[in-house]
Request: fold
Amino acid sequence: MNYHFRKAELSDISPIWEILQQAIQRRKEDGSNQWQDGYPNPEVVQKDIEKGEGFVLTDGETIIGYSAVLINDEPVYAKIEGNWLTNDDFVVMHRVAVSENYLGKGLAKLMLKYIEDFALSNNIYSVKADTNFDNIAMMKIFEKLGYSYCGEVYFRGSPRKAYEKVLAKQDQLKL
Reply:
């Protein structure tokens, strides 16, 4: 496989939005209220990209996954009901989604590994994330990859499960 993880470009908005719409529909079919309130939307993706925080997973030239990756930029994380493992610099991921055509191949896990590498390449040893209480698939991925449940954070009035993984220098992905 020819997978790469790179910064998204404005010209990528259309395939990214297609992937997010598929994920929004999957969440709806799963009976979840996550992403059922008009968020995320193309404007959110455009802002991610303009701020240099939008990333795509590609198979050759085809965009097959998307995530926003931010450094130290999640104000609600300061108000966690619980405790983070660290209080140092951190990378946070949002809007992780994989194309319908590529489900079941472990690509969300691969994207998280790339995000961990991004953190390490910036000398940051903490990755934080959150997910909806009913997003069992994402919680399983966090558990498999060694993320620790730290408590709850609130987005747009809804509680989310918050996770953190502390990285070691030797965690760098060998590709």
